[in-house]
Amino acid sequence: MNINQRKKIAAGLSIISNVTLTILKIIVGVISGSLSIISEAIHSLSDFIASIITYFSVIKSSEPADDDHPYGHGKYEDMAGFIEGFLIILAAIFIIFEATKKIISGMPAQTENLLGITVMAIAVIMNFVVSSYIFKVAKSSDSISLYADGQHLRTDVYSSFGVLIGLFLIKITGYSVLDPIIAILVAVFIFRTGHFITNKSWMNLLDHSLPEEDIKQIEQIINNYSDTTKLKKHGIKARRLGPTKDINLTLQFKKDTTICDCHKICDEIEQNIRKIYPNCSISIHAEPMCYRKNCKNKCTINCGTK
Q1: One pLDDT digit (tens) per residue for the chain, 306 residues
Q2: 223 class by beta-carbon count within 10 Å (0-12 exposed, 13-18 middle, 19+ buried)
Q3: DSSP 22
Q4: How far apart are CA 225 and CA 220, in angstroms?
Q5: Under 8 Å CB-to-CB from 244, ≥6 apart: which residues?
Q6: Taking burial as the number of CB atoms within 10 A of a residue's CB, which of 62, 76, 190, 292 is the most buried?
Q7: CA atoms within 13 A on the CB side of 267
Q8: Is the dihedral of CA 269, 281, 77, 17 positive or negative?
Q9: What is the DSSP letter of 14?
Q10: Alpha-carbon distance 269 to 267, whole Å?
């Protein structure tokens, strides 16, 4: 099974999980009158919408480059991640708004706690299993949209567990005001996750550079060939395109390096980079160390350092 098929299965599994939990939470939330459970239903609904977006972005991003998209379709995943994060933020704001109204207007007593506790326990277990699988596929494929979807479900694990504990406390103490308070705490946690996903996806859409540790690893590979070539100043341009990395290098070679040797070294550098980042596109521009616009081929080998 190739990586694209695994990505589709992971996204499809997320859809099934989210629609099941959304229906269960809505039913139990209405029966029990628990705002914290209803807030969790809203959270799962946003997860469901996000998982559908993820599924279609995974399909689209797997398409090869064409005349209209010469760099491929990887940005579809970045856009999906941004939309998912935005949906999480909207869900958090709505939950806080409704919970605040409940606190101000007064909170009715719970009518059915045991049912809510059971559903929250099921949600914790189901989301943990599904999110673990999605994270595994997201890591192996370097998929931002699957990572965002996994984060959706993982926050659902923590928030559902928080609601579960809260329902136990309400059952023990009888203080129903704990319900909207728990809902607000859940919403704050959801908002934080949404902000992180949105910010990360937005940076990719704006062609933000790869993390510094990635740049340093690429520089280290090039430094292994320092007897023949060196990286030109500001000679690395690297960005994410959805699940792939786009890396552009400008290397300077000694002026007596043959075209064949230059090509061989460039191939070796590409191969070594791909060992670390298998899913990437690499473009290398080679220049002589003595390169100058007014060069008359009389300069020395060290003039490139001036």
Answers
A1: 677 788 888 888 888 888 888 898 888 888 877 777 887 788 788 778 878 887 877 777 767 666 666 666 667 777 777 887 887 788 788 778 877 877 787 655 555 567 888 888 888 899 899 989 988 888 877 777 787 778 778 877 877 887 788 778 777 877 777 777 877 887 887 788 788 878 877 776 766 777 788 888 888 888 888 888 888 888 888 887 766 788 889 998 887 788 898 899 999 998 989 888 877 788 888 888 765 555 555 444 444 443
A2: exposed
A3: H
A4: 9
A5: 72, 74, 142, 279, 280, 281
A6: 190
A7: 6
A8: negative
A9: H
A10: 5
Closest CA to 138 of 153, 154, 149, 128: 149
Q: Out of 169, 189, 205, pick the residue that ends a domain.
A: 205
Structure tokens at 225: 């060939």
Q: Which two tokens stand for residue 223?
A: 């430094």
How far is CA 133 from each of CA 73, 115, 159, 238, rounded to the nearest angstrom?
Answer: 24, 28, 19, 29
Question: Same domain for 102 and 180?
Answer: yes
Q: Record the pTM.
A: 0.60
Q: Going by C-beta distance under 8 Å and a sequence separation of 6 or more, which residues neighbour residue 10?
A: 133, 134, 137, 138, 146, 149
Residues 53 and 176 in one domain: yes
Domain of 174 in residue numbering reads as: 3-205
Amino acid letter for position 38 = I
Task: Give me 242's structure tokens.
Answer: 């959805």
167 and 270 assigned to the same domain: no
- What the block records as the tokens of 216 is 């340093």
Write the CB contacts of 186 (distance below 8 Å, at least 6 apart in sequence).
Answer: 36, 39, 40, 43, 95, 159, 162, 163
